[in-house]
Amino acid sequence: MSRWPPRPTVVVGVLAALLGAAAGAWFFNRSVPAAAPLPPPRPAVAAARPGDALPAITLPDLDGTPVALAGFGGRPLLINVWASWCGPCVEEMPALAAFAATQPADGVQVLGLALDSRDGVRDFLARVPVGYPIVLDTPGPADASVRLGNTQGLLPYSVLVGADGRILKQKLGPFGPGEIEAWAAH
Predict the structure, then answer these.
(1) Residues 62, 125, 166, 74, Cα dihedral to 10°
(2) Of 4, 5, 7, 23, which shows the fewest CB atoms inside 10 Å?
(3) Domains and CATH numbers, the chain
């Protein structure tokens, strides 16, 4: 008993296999245009460490006036990075304000660096006023907090800068009761 002519399903199967092999050969042997080159990687932001000079950072205050952090030189400077939506930041603000208010003319200056919106900071300060200056920055991978050494991007974050403009200490997390005075003693 002869099976010729072959059954239609066998013919269809053989044709499908031949077409699949031809399509595969075409796909893998075709010339592919070169992809556009990738953009160069963004330069990494240098994170300051103790002993480094304070990075050249200028940020706007609440009125939009540029403030250079280097302009606070000649006296120690405690920079506290915070945000109005950060619970631990909000809890330590009264202690920072009290510390700043007790400093003599040649004592430690305090600067708040808010990673927040102008309106968010103004609303917060209407409820919890502080007597030290506040500057603003937009949170991001290259914000002033990162440049000051906060590589983890967590808040609050504080930096103590010596009168010579060099970073003395860095602290991630809130100050405990009575800790600011001892930490800021250089």
Answers:
(1) 80
(2) 4
(3) 58-184 (3.40.30.10)
Separation of first and last alpha carbons in the chain? 104
Q: What is the rounded distance in angstroms from the CA atom of residue 69 to the CA atom of residue 18?
A: 73
Confidence band, pLDDT 50/70/90 cuts, at residue 7 = low
Cβ(77)–Cβ(108) below 8 Å: yes
Question: Which tokens sit at 34?
Answer: 């070169």
| Higher-pLDDT residue of 27, 166 | 166
CB 153 within 8 A of CB 138: no
Name the token pair of 103: 């400093």
HEC profile of the chain: CCCCCCCHHHHHHHHHHHHHHHHHHHHHHCCCCCCCCCCCCCCCCCCCCCCCECCCCEEEECCCCEEEHHHHCCCCEEEEEECCCCHHHHHHHHHHHHHHHCCCCCCCEEEEEEECCHHHHHHHHHHCCCCCCEEEECCCCCCHHHHCCCCCCCCCEEEEECCCCEEEEEEECCCCCCHHHHHHCC
pLDDT at 146: 96
